[in-house]
């Protein structure tokens, strides 16, 4: 179950594309949704952090954890619509 969730999150694929080896996609999705709503993922992260901290395996001066996932529309990045390419007003280095 967890491997199916990790596969989905790491690939960015839609739930319906979850490989059969992880079980029915609806079941995996519902479990992910439930665990997200009830704080299970937060508790897992806290435990992993506590364990790693106790072992001294984390350099807290360089750690950054961001649990935000944002999907952009397929056309969100890329060239501008219409118009022509503009040259920079900054002179080229000699």
TrEMBL record:
<protein>
    <submittedName>
        <fullName>Transposase</fullName>
    </submittedName>
</protein>
<feature type="domain" description="Insertion element IS402-like">
    <location>
        <begin position="1"/>
        <end position="44"/>
    </location>
</feature>
<dbReference type="Pfam" id="PF13340">
    <property type="entry name" value="DUF4096"/>
</dbReference>
<feature type="region of interest" description="Disordered">
    <location>
        <begin position="75"/>
        <end position="94"/>
    </location>
</feature>
<dbReference type="InterPro" id="IPR052909">
    <property type="entry name" value="Transposase_6_like"/>
</dbReference>
<dbReference type="InterPro" id="IPR025161">
    <property type="entry name" value="IS402-like_dom"/>
</dbReference>
């Amino acid at each position: 179950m967890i491997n199916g969730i990790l596969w989905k999150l790491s690939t960015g694929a839609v739930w319906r594309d979850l490989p059969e080896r992880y079980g029915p996609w609806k079941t995996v999705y519902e479990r992910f949704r439930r665990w997200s709503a009830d704080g299970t993922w937060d508790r897992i992260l806290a435990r992993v952090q506590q364990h790693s901290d106790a072992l001294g395996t984390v350099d807290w001066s360089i750690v950054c954890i961001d649990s935000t996932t944002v999907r952009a529309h397929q056309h969100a990045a890329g060239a501008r619509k219409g118009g022509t390419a503009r040259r920079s007003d900054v002179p080229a280095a000699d």
